[in-house]
Amino acid sequence: SAYRLCIMRKLPSVLARTLTFGTSASPGLPDMSEVRSKLRDIVGASTNWRDHVQAMQERKALHTLLAKRQEDLPPRRMKDSYLEVILPLGSQPEIREKYLNVHNSVRFGRILEDLDSLGVLICYTHTKQEMQQRSPLSIVTALVDKINLCQKIIHPDCDIKFTGNVSWVGKTSMEVRMHMLQQHDGDYSPVLDATFVMVARDPENKRPAFVNPLIPESPEEEEIFKQGELNKLKRIEFSTASLLKMAPTAEERNIVHDIFLNTLDPRQEGEGTVSFRSRKLPPNSVWIEDAKLKGLEICHPEERNIFNRIFGGFLMRKAFELGWATACSYGGSRPFIVSVDDIMFQKPVEVGSLLLLSGQVCYTEKNYIQIRVHSEVYNANTKEHHTTNIFHFTFISENEVPQVVPKTYG
Q1: Structure confidence at residue 269 (pLDDT)
Q2: What pTM, to 2 d.p., does this model score?
Q3: What b/e readout covers 203-231, taking b as 16+ CB neighbours within 10 angstroms?
Q4: In this structure, are 343 and 230 located in the same domain?
Q5: Are residues 94 and 187 both part of a single domain?
Q6: What is the pLDDT of residues 255-275, one digit of tens each?
Q7: Could you tell me how far CA 127 lies from the centroid of its own chain?
Q8: pLDDT of 275
Q9: Could you give the number of structural domains in the chain?
Q10: Taking all residues of the chain, what is their mean pLDDT, rounded to a whole number?
Q11: Among 82, 155, 264, 336, whose Cα sits 20 to 30 Å from the Cα of 109?
């Protein structure tokens, strides 16, 4: 089962360094509101929308604090960026409502928001310079590489703990590994593993900026670092193998041809002839073009991040919710999220944008449904559309689902 794929990679307990503030639920551990407050302090972000222009102007002066070369920055260890954060759903019932869904479990879209905030704070912890109160870096999410879940249900009345640290560093990018655990009978058990890639940019978020190198300290850490390097190479390889750049492989061509042959209708024409235009749907199947849902969001100031663009976690939550609704309407029963893959953040989304979301069932197998959500912004002044994100979600449905079948090459 896919749920068994979730393996907690525990780093040595020596990593257990936390922020210096805590909650009554778990003394010494910050909660998510403190994480976001800490991020605002590090960046110097305004809490009022009307002050945001002045706050961003003040950040320009931080340019002088940027390193000219990566070699000028002190190397860091994995344990230097290690953080633990509590989400006190059990011990603080007043925050439960925000996380609750109608099925009496936790809204996964809210968890995506929390992972995004925590990933950014972990990177700021890795790059922190002792003498600087504010960071000159703008650290933003570039990619959600993978999130694997090993629990079907996340309980709304038990405390959750997030842990994470920087696991690989390039010149200007960092990979962050995070784990989520939930408390049951006094013990924390694994719920999910997540791998995010963050990029560092200058104070105005215009150009790449160097980050501290990472030094693995043990054979286990060297393995983790090596895996980060492999992940990077896989991403490069995957982008060069895009169908827009490269022809399908022999195996892929056979798959496409078999699908095509299965959808030809030999009865549409005279004896012995088959039309390429006459297509029939195989039994218990749905055309891919009939398995879509669309959504629209107006991007209000409330959803902005510390750089006054729309918060990546909000975009992920909205895309996930549309993906879930697409899977629910397609399968006809409640779907459960199994994994999240390859969320690419291609363009930032400005406050005031019209965000158009399109959910599409793109693959099915037995009880599994894979959904692709395409997100684009529409500029009412220029009448232009720009892709901002592409999301991939895999769900498991309570019942077996119809097979989804493509009609065109695209």
Answers
A1: 53
A2: 0.84
A3: bebeeebbbbebebeeeebeebbebbeeb
A4: no
A5: yes
A6: 888 888 888 876 655 555 666
A7: 22
A8: 67
A9: 3
A10: 85
A11: 82
Tokens representing 220? 């286990």
- Please name the residues in contact with 288: beta carbons below 8 A apart, sequence gap of 6 or more: 360, 361, 362, 404, 405, 406, 407
DSSP three-state, residue 257? helix
Domain that holds residue 275: 250-282
344-374 burial, b for 16+ CB within 10 Å, e for fewer? Answer: bbeebbebebebbbbbbbeebeebbbbbbbb
Kindly list the strands in the beta sheet with 187-201, ordered across the sheet, starting from the edge strand earlier in the chain.
83-87, 160-169, 173-184, 187-201, 138-149, 335-345, 384-397, 368-379, 354-365, 292-298
Quick check: 362 and 372 in contact, CB under 8 A?
A: yes
Q: What are the beta bridge partners of residue 264?
A: 279
Is 272 part of a structural domain of the chain? yes
Is 9 inside a domain boundary? no
Residue 53 inside a domain? The answer is: yes
Res 18 pLDDT > 70 = no
3-class DSSP state of 241: coil
Residue 23 maps to a domain: no
Both 191 and 52 in a single domain? yes
For residues 236 and 329, membership in a common domain is answered with no
Distance CA 273, CA 275 (A): 7
Concatenated DSSP letters for 43-56? HT--SSGGGHHHHH
322-367: per-residue pLDDT in tens? 999 999 999 988 999 999 988 888 888 888 889 999 999 999 999 9
- Closest to 371 (Cα-Cα) out of 312, 263, 295: 295
Is there a single domain that holds both residue 110 and residue 38? yes
Other C-beta atoms closer than 10 Å to the C-beta of 164 total 27
Q: What DSSP line would sit under 334-384, residue for residue?
A: -EEEEEEEEEEE-S--BTTPEEEEEEEEEEEETTEEEEEEEEEEEETTTTE
Q: What is d(CA 100, CA 153) in angstroms, rounded to the nearest whole number?
A: 12
Do the Cβ atoms of 389 and 315 come closer than 8 Å? yes
CA–CA distance, 251 with 248 (Å, rounded to integer):
8
